[in-house]
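Slide 14.
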Amino acid sequence: MADHDIPFDKSFDLVPGIVKEIAPKVRALCAGNGGPFTFKGTVTYIVGRGKVAVIDPGPEEPQHVQALLEALSGETVSHILLTHTHRDHSPAAAALKAATGAATYGEGPHRASRPLHIGEINPLDAAADTDFRPDIRLGDRDIVAGEGWTLEAVATPGHCANHMAYALKETNALFSGDHVMGWSTSIVAPPDGAMSDYMASLYKVAERDETVYFPGHGNMIREAPRFVQSYIRHRLGREESILHRLAKGAADIPTLVRAIYIGIDPRLIGAAGLSVLAHLEDLVARGKVATEGTPSIAGIYRLA
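Slide 15: predicted structure.
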């Protein structure tokens, strides 16, 4: 399944620095940190009125923090929740906590989905917020409640080991972070990400009842269960493409990227290679693909 078979929404109507009510009990503020991995920027969400929760305060950018505090003027922040600890989502939590006194919530501190292999350097170190430590750690299905709103923590590892989505029980919606986004597929890049975890998390949310997703980047996703199924088909298609190419002979990851990602933005080639590595780690673990030693970005792969 190609990317163009997913019903992406490339439109976006949030203006950085201006808060907008996008659904009952939900306001959104775009940080404006646009780029090839963040689309138009990280979206920070405010849940409730009066006594509110903030989900993903965003990057450590003073203009965004100031806009967020102005949007919250006259209200009390009772909870600060994080979907995960990449630097476009979590660093502003420190400034928001200092300004409001609210406790922070999340699955846990940043960690990789697997240990680094010998000689391996984590290419995502710059993206990781290793300073964040939640005041209160959340597990799957834990409930966080405030004035007029109730959030259920939904553990969704894969994009990041500590990724957590939040279901807003009053409106049947899910804050999906970077697990599912409407503008693009999510990057699953070892060692931070793991494809086996990611696929399990996709199947998990596909079985839930939420029909609307509020992602970390881009517009809200409507008909969410159908959209998740397109995500699942896409990943299974990527897997089949890898196996199809390996059926022609052994190959390294750059060769696989050239065969699978036709016309890719050059800025995303490195991420594509890591995504292929994530698939290969999973395929090797399942006995479908073989390589010498531990799967690595420099490995040569063949059908098992």
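Speaker note: Helices lie at 62-71, 93-100, 195-206, 224-246, 253-260, 269-285.
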